[in-house]
Amino acid sequence: DVKVTQSSRYLVKRTGEKVFLECVQDMDHENMFWYRQDPGLGLRLIYFSYDVKMKEKGDIPEGYSVSREKKERFSLILESASTNQTSMYLCASSFLGPESYYEQYFGPGTRLTVT
Amino acid sequence: AQSVTQLDSQVPVFEEAPVELRCNYSSSVSVYLFWYVQYPNQGLQLLLKYLSGSTLVKGINGFEAEFNKSQTSFHLRKPSVHISDTAEYFCAVRRSNDYKLSFGAGTTVTVRA
């Protein structure tokens, strides 16, 4: 089974802190994604990466950055956390290959609260 | 650009009754379609997907969905729900030339005895 793990299930940080959210997948997937999930808005893509050291902005990249130094690990960074970044953050991964493999596999999520 | 609309934000249903969750999308290119389920305090899990071929697709846990190209819809159905189907359901669309997914806002299904 594909496994996507996220470093924390719950996180509480203060405004202005630098926050790191870590995601690791064990299926040698090329693509990795970071989403935020808010009630009534569904999932919105923050950033994605299709290879080591490669990244592309998603729909809502402002206030976030990412790092992918190894294929299995994709980090989301909040440079200076703000209260409007309180949300559920979901990581996902997928193959870059035949279309049937474009299914994305999700981690359990990190619920971040910024006070 | 593409958008995904889930027409119902909340669907209450009694146990053993049928349920239908509606999803419409807009896209200028061909698409691939997915339904995901999120049980409380968990990540998303794939229910089913449409890539090509038969427009009626069957997924896990007795769910099925029908792709209607002319109506740009991909509605999810289950003939008889269980308490354990209480969850949030997301419709997602991927353009054929992209690997990003666009998600709908979600539909919360609450099954009552």
Give the structural class of chain B: mainly beta
Uncertain regions spanning at least 5 consecutive residues of chain A: none
User: Regions of chain B with pLDDT < 50 over 5+ consecutive residues?
Assistant: none
Supply Rg of chain B. Answer: 13 Å
The helix tally of chain A amounts to 0
Summarize the main sheet of chain A: 7 strands, mixed
Number of strands of chain A: 11
Strand content of chain B: over 45%
The end-to-end span of chain B amounts to 42 Å
Please give the number of β-strands of chain B.
12
Features:
heterodimer, A: 115 residues, mainly beta, four-stranded antiparallel beta sheet, 11 strands, 56% strand, B: mainly beta, six-stranded mixed beta sheet
How would you describe this structure to a colleague?
The complex is a heterodimer of chains A (about 120) and B (about 110). Chain A is an all-beta fold. Chain A is built from no helices and 11 strands. Chain A has strands at about 5, 10-15, 20-25, 30-40, 40-50, 55, 65-70, 75-80, 85-95, 105, 110-115. In chain A, strands 2, 4, 5, 6, 9, 10 and 11 form a 7-stranded mixed beta sheet that branches. A 4-stranded antiparallel beta sheet of chain A has the order 1-3-8-7, with no helix packed on it. The mean pLDDT of chain A is about 90. With about 110 residues, chain B is mainly beta. Chain B is about 0% helix and about 55% strand. Chain B contains no helices and 12 strands. In chain B, the strands form 3 sheets. In chain B, strands 2, 5, 6, 10, 11 and 12 form a 6-stranded mixed beta sheet that branches. In chain B, strands 3-9-8-7 form a 4-stranded antiparallel beta sheet, with no helix packed on it. In chain B, strands 1-4 form a two-stranded antiparallel ribbon. Chain B is globular and about 45 Å long. Chain B starts with a strand and ends with a strand. The model of chain B has no long low-confidence stretch (mean pLDDT about 90). Chains A and B meet through strand 4, strand 5, strand 9 and strand 10 of A and strand 5 and strand 6 of B.
